[in-house]
Amino acid sequence: MTLRERAAVFKALGHPARLAMVERLGQGECCVCILMEMPKLPKLSGPTISQHLLVLKNAGIIADEKRGKRIFYRLLMPCVADISLCVGGRHGLTNMSTADL
Amino acid sequence: MTLRERAAVFKALGHPARLAMVERLGQGECCVCILMEMPKLPKLSGPTISQHLLVLKNAGIIADEKRGKRIFYRLLMPCVADISLCVGGRHGLTNMSTADL
DNA sequence: TAGTTATTTAGCTAAATAACGAAATAATGA
DNA sequence: TCATTATTTCGTTATTTAGCTAAATAACTA
Question: Which residue in A10, A25, A17 sits closest to A47, CA to CA?
Fold first, then answer.
């Protein structure tokens, strides 16, 4: 993975709406309809949410799958959910676990 | 640390030049003059480098200190250097060490 | 003091991003 | 088949970002 590609991953995470989505997806896959109702953020329109999801998908962070009328997204890089802990908390990764949430 | 602040950290890391600088600073502090000569990137002008460093500083990722004629930068969040490993490599953080470079 | 080196600040332009509403697509249910 | 629901695509606008050159600042050296 090149420097450029790594930077693209961080860039994709560099928006509050997208980071919130990724943190939510860290708990397990969910459909767009759920992501559209996350209370963490000022309510964004459907199209805007959709665009943000596309950005994350293009960076290789998430993948989508259609099931019936809905589209479900899931995290392809589980570590990015942990990264938020690292950045948000003590500044070292060693001995970190999800219990630190 | 709020969602917004965490996102700001990722945003700051989301440019190849800045990510390269952070990865370099992960090996220890250095002055701007060194960062300006990193071979990893297409050569950027001094002012451009300076602006990138300011972005990293505003995000709380690095700090500067003047010593004589030079200004030295160092990493305030050592974990961000490790993050690059996580994103670039296998997608989990457990058992990661610098040997994985 | 004047000159040199290292770095930042200011001012600008071009390109990228974020957001929206309207329209399109796709799957289901009546 | 027609309407409904879930989501994306399109077209537009406002804002932000990345890069440059020129000028300013700060610390050393002759």
Answer: A17
Q: How remote is the C-alpha of A46 from its chain's centroid?
A: 17
Spell out the domain ranges in chain A: 3-90
Chain B residues touching A78 at Cβ < 8 A: 91-92
- The string of pLDDT tens digits covering residues B65-94 is 999 999 999 999 988 877 777 777 755 444
Whose tokens are 């993050």? That residue is B83
Q: Which CATH number fits domain A3-90: 3.30.70.100, 1.10.10.10, 2.40.110.10, 3.30.1160.10?
A: 1.10.10.10
Of B48 and A43, the one with more pLDDT: B48
Indicate the fold that domain B3-86 takes in CATH. Arc Repressor Mutant, subunit A (1.10.10)
pLDDT at A82 over 90: no
Q: Which of B1, B16, B82 sits opposite A4 (nearest CB)?
A: B16
Q: How do residues A17-44 score in pLDDT, each as one tens digit? A: 999 999 999 999 999 999 999 888 888 9
The 3-class secondary structure across B18-29, one letter per residue, is: HHHHHHHHCCCC
| Cβ–Cβ gap B91/A79 under 8 Å | yes
- What is the torsional sign of CA B55, B6, A62, A3? positive
Rg (CA), chain B: 14
**Paired tokens of B25:** 């600073």
Determine whether the interchain pair A6/B87 forms a contact, defined as Cβ–Cβ distance below 8 Å.
Answer: yes
